[in-house]
Design goal:
The chain has 242 residues and is mainly α. It has helices at residues 2-35, 39-64, 71-91, 103-122, 136-149, 156-175, 181-203, 212-241. The longest helix is centred in the N-terminal third of the chain and has 34 residues, at 2-35. The chain is globular.
């Protein structure tokens, strides 16, 4: 746990100015995409996401988290997601077409990265040993919010990576005492259900097993189980702090 928070402090202390630039660039890219979703602004957002994921892979994990035993694996994990966005930028697999189906949830999620530092401050943490908006879990939540805004067609492979990452965050909350990561895990569960429901119910063949009419029930059960795990982990975290 000491190494974990030490690397976070090292990262924040040396990159806080760049993090501000990345946050401002993210706000600008999001506003442009929301207000005027043209091919140019859609490409700008994808380029921003490529740079953001590459930042997490190289700067956060490969450089500043070098002391962690698993940093290389995580760097590869986020590097692969950056490459997925590169592929998407060339093939336009994710067209960023607005549907307004999940706007309310998306608006909640898009502000969560700014809640992370407030959560840390409320726990008595101070800069630089605290969570900030440009960290893996916050980037995951931000991406999920963008995909919810433009959910007509999403890259399901990327969704799988992001959901896998957020569920992994549950273990960190317990072992490293980071209740902030409950925000990422909590955001993932409803998003997981919505993305997979849309994907499976619209694309699977009726001849598959289980049949399409049962897929929705299976997804509800799966997400309910994840919710129970999340709540149980939260309770265990609260008990351990008493």
């Amino acid at each position: 746990m000491e190494i974990f928070w030490k690397t976070i402090a090292y990262y924040n202390e040396n990159t806080w100015m760049w993090q501000i630039i990345l946050v401002l660039a993210g706000i600008l890219s999001t506003v442009l995409l929301m207000c005027k979703p043209t091919p140019k602004t859609k490409l700008i957002m994808k380029i921003y996401l490529i740079l953001l994921y590459a930042w997490i892979a190289i700067i956060y994990y490969a450089i500043y988290c070098e002391e962690r035993r698993y940093n290389n694996v995580m760097a590869i994990f986020w590097g692969v997601m950056a490459l997925i966005w590169v592929w998407d930028a060339f093939n336009n697999y994710t067209p960023f077409e607005r549907t307004h189906k999940y706007d309310l949830l998306a608006y909640v999620f898009i502000f969560l990265p700014f809640v992370y530092p407030l959560f840390s401050l409320s726990r008595g943490l101070t800069f630089p040993m605290m969570t900030l908006p440009v960290m893996p879990c916050t980037v995951a939540v931000f991406t999920i919010s963008i995909l919810l805004f433009f959910s007509k067609k999403v890259n399901i492979l990327l969704v799988l990576f992001l959901c896998h990452w957020s569920i992994i965050g549950l273990t960190k909350t317990y072992f490293f005492h980071i209740p902030e990561d409950f925000l990422a895990a909590g955001a993932t569960i409803p998003a997981l259900y919505l993305f997979f429901r849309d994907y499976f119910l619209e694309n699977i063949n009726e001849e598959t097993k289980p049949k399409a009419k049962y897929i929705n029930g299976i997804l509800i059960l799966m997400c309910t189980a994840l919710g129970i795990i999340l709540i149980s982990t939260l309770i265990m975290e609260m008990i351990s702090e008493q």
